[in-house]
């Protein structure tokens, strides 16, 4: 279903109903750009830490606009063994609903706009008919202004006027006296004839203020004065003859109209709040930017710190699954070699996978996957959900006896909960939204600073004695250089000790200097404590949703080995994994796990995670409903009696 400003009010109840009855929800977004500064290769450095990647995206991506949002709900019909799908394609645009509402500034990236245009994207529909939105803080501020304005109006008598400016006009300037005299004459004529109202010519805000001031002082009763807007967006004043009863009725109508306008201005944020309140599993593909933009536009500005962002996100969306990460991990990575959405969808329609059966209600748009509509957000959300179902059901083949349908609440999916794919990071496959991130050893990595004129070939020449290296550019004067052997690091440091044009540091020294810089630049409050004001405000906003958004550089970097050659598999350093054992299913439906033999130091991904692992706890029984009410995310030490043997063992190679 295509949803614009014109049909949003009618569609909203259907959206909320679809969300409430869904087993899970798939989402996707289209943006006006990706990076406002560095190239994508520089924005996604292969040796970024999760904190660095988050800070880059926050700094260089949040000024773009998410202007098409796809949402598709999936509900499993046990009787027919099919999924009932309801897809919505929302056009979103922050149109100000009045002069006091936020007037959003955003930027566009020409390559992104050109690409979407080549896919047939309707930009006119976005800008003419896009659904507005407000964050909860913006909505609260506007409602406070409305209440304050209404209070002032009720105390001022019959003239319905409240100055928007703090400047008061105590007299009529000389150059405006003729204008005001003309208005007074029109009012006198109105009072004498049988006409009920008169419309004045459009005028400036200052002139309107003079009119209100003059009429309020000269005519204490019998008139209703209101500012309106014509088709050309010109503001004019309408003066009507009324008695006290009629005046009160018009005041009530105006207040009701203003409330409706404000409710309409909240717009698409209501959809995000419905998804958050439902607590349902939200599925996306390579969804870190989707989540960041959703939080930023419809909840509140993303926090400065990564840990605060994780808290806000988990409060708003307690269960997330990224299908790109899912396809990049065991047991899928050996049989799925291209994890881009379109190619993944094609692969999952082939053996050993099986495409799910779906059905769409008559009044909803039915997508035909035989004719691809990639980069329409609604379609991308739909096939993201199909990919998730196919991979989830494939996990059921490891059960004894095998199960053809795996619920979105199954414990088999817990290893993939709340981990978002990190694009092109060599040795950290995901961002762990529920705890500490992986910290791989990077003893073989050097941090090199050099003159701006240097290119990749200069770095290769500098390290030519050390065999194969990998260069990851940071900016014009620095890069990471990965050596093939850790033993070579000290040799490289020693040989550069007396160099004048460049400097080499170990990765550990680089991190230490970064930490000092971070501590130095930290904001401090007047009382000497670190300023934590944002975190509290952000959490308040999020919880409100949950319960109650150069050619030269390109040439330089294109010489460096491309991580795309590695097929963007985030866990490329995982070279082997332990054998997968079948799980026996008892007659009563409970699961008992066979012994799983694994290599030394294997990570238990299915069993309860410890504090050290930093992952969220499971959702309880396989078919348990997601918990409602206020959600708290606390770390819990695993108990020996609660430990469940793993389905998949992944070597801990970090």
TrEMBL record:
**Which UniProt keywords are given for this protein, alphabetically ordered?**
Cytoplasm, Exonuclease, Hydrolase, Metal-binding, Nuclease, Nucleus, RNA-binding
PROSITE patterns listed in its UniProt record: R3H
Q: Where is the composition biased (Polar residues)?
A: 153-169, 557-566
SUPFAM superfamilies tied to this protein: R3H domain (SSF82708), Ribonuclease H-like (SSF53098), RNA-binding domain, RBD (SSF54928)
Xref: InterPro entries: CAF1_poly(A)_ribonucleases, Nucleotide-bd_a/b_plait_sf, PARN_R3H, PolyA-riboNase_RNA-binding, R3H_dom, R3H_dom_sf, RBD_domain_sf, RNase_CAF1
Q: What does the record list as GO biological process?
A: nuclear-transcribed mRNA poly(A) tail shortening; priRNA 3'-end processing; siRNA 3'-end processing
* Region spans: Disordered: 150-169, 545-566, 586-654
Reactions mediated catalytically: Exonucleolytic cleavage of poly(A) to 5'-AMP
Q: Key word Cell membrane present in the record?
A: no
A Pfam family found in this protein is RNA_bind
**CDD domains associated with the record:** R3H_PARN, RRM_PARN
The subcellular localization recorded is: Cytoplasm; Nucleus
What is the protein name stated in its UniProt record? Poly(A)-specific ribonuclease PARN
Which family does this protein fall into?
Belongs to the CAF1 family.
Main localisation, per the record? cytoplasm
- Enzyme Commission number(s) of this protein: 3.1.13.4
Q: Which Gene3D superfamilies match?
A: 3.30.70.330, Ribonuclease H-like superfamily/Ribonuclease H
| Residue ranges, compositional bias (Low complexity) | 612-621
In this chain the R3H domain maps to 177-243
One GO cellular component term, please give it.
Answer: nucleus
Give the species this sequence originates from: Triplophysa rosa (Cave loach)
Query: One GO molecular-function annotation for this sequence?
Result: poly(A)-specific ribonuclease activity
């Amino acid at each position: 279903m295509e949803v614009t400003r014109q049909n949003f009010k009618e569609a909203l109840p259907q959206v909320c109903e679809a969300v409430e009855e869904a087993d899970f929800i798939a989402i996707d977004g289209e943006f006006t750009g990706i990076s406002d500064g560095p190239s994508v290769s520089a924005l996604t450095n292969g040796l970024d830490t999760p904190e660095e990647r988050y800070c880059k995206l926050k700094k260089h991506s949040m000024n773009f606009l998410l202007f098409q949002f796809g949402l598709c709900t999936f509900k499993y019909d046990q009787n027919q063994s099919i999924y009932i799908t309801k897809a919505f394609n929302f056009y979103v645009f922050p149109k100000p609903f009045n002069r006091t509402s936020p007037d959003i500034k955003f930027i566009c990236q020409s390559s992104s706009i050109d690409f979407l245009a080549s896919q047939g994207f309707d930009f006119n529909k976005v800008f003419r008919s896009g659904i507005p939105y407000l964050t909860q803080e913006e909505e609260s501020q506007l409602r406070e202004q409305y209440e304050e304005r209404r209070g002032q109006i009720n105390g001022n008598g019959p003239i319905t006027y409240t100055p928007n400016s703090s400047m008061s006009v105590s007299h009529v300037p000389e150059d405006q006296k003729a204008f005001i005299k003309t208005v007074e004459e029109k009012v006198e004529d109105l009072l004498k004839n049988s006409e009920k109202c008169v419309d004045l010519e459009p005028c400036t805000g200052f002139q309107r203020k003079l009119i209100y001031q003059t009429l309020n002082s000269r005519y204490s009763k019998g008139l209703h004065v209101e500012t309106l807007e014509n088709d050309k967006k010109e503001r004019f004043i309408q003066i009507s003859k009324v008695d006290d009863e009629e005046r009160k009725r018009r005041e009530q109508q105006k207040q009701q109209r203003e409330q409706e306008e404000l409710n309409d201005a909240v717009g698409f944020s209501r959809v995000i709040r419905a998804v958050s309140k439902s607590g349902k599993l939200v599925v996306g593909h390579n969804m870190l930017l989707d989540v960041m933009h959703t939080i930023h536009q419809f909840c509140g500005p993303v926090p400065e710190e990564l840990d605060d962002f994780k808290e806000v996100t988990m409060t708003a969306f307690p269960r997330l699954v990224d299908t790109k990460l899912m396809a990049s991990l065991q047991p899928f990575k050996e049989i799925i070699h291209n994890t881009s959405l379109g190619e993944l969808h094609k692969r999952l329609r082939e053996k050993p996978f099986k495409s799910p059966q779906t059905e769409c209600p008559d009044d909803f748009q039915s997508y035909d996957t035989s004719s691809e509509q990639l980069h329409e957000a609604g379609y991308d959300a739909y096939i993201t959900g199909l990919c998730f179902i196919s991979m989830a059901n494939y996990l059921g083949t490891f059960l004894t006896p095998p199960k053809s349908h795996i619920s979105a609440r199954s414990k088999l999916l817990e290893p993939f909960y709340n981990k978002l794919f990190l694009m092109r990071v060599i040795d950290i496959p995901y961002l762990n939204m529920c705890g500490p991130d992986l910290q791989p050893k990077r003893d073989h990595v050097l941090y090199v600073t050099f003159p701006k004129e240097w290119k990749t070939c200069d770095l290769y020449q500098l390290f030519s004695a050390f065999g194969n290296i990998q260069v990851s550019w940071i900016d014009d004067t620095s890069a990471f250089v990965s050596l093939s052997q850790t033993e070579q690091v000290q040799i490289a440091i020693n040989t550069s000790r007396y160099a004048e044009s460049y400097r080499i540091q170990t990765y550990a020294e680089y991190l230490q200097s970064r930490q000092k810089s971070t501590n130095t630049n930290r904001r401090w409050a007047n009382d000497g404590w670190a300023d934590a004001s944002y975190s509290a405000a952000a959490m308040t906003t999020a919880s409100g949703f949950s319960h109650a958004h150069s050619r030269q550089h390109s040439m330089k970097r294109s010489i460096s080995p491309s991580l795309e050659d590695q097929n963007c598999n985030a866990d490329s350093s995982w070279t082997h994994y332990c054998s997968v054992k079948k799980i026996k299913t008892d007659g009563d439906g409970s699961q008992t796990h066979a012994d799983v033999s694994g290599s030394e130091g294997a990570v238990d991904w299915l069993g309860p995670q410890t504090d050290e692992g930093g992952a969220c706890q499971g959702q309880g029984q396989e078919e348990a409903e997601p918990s409602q009410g206020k959600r708290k995310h606390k770390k819990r030490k695993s108990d020996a009696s609660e430990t469940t043997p793993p389905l998949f063992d992944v070597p801990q190679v970090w």
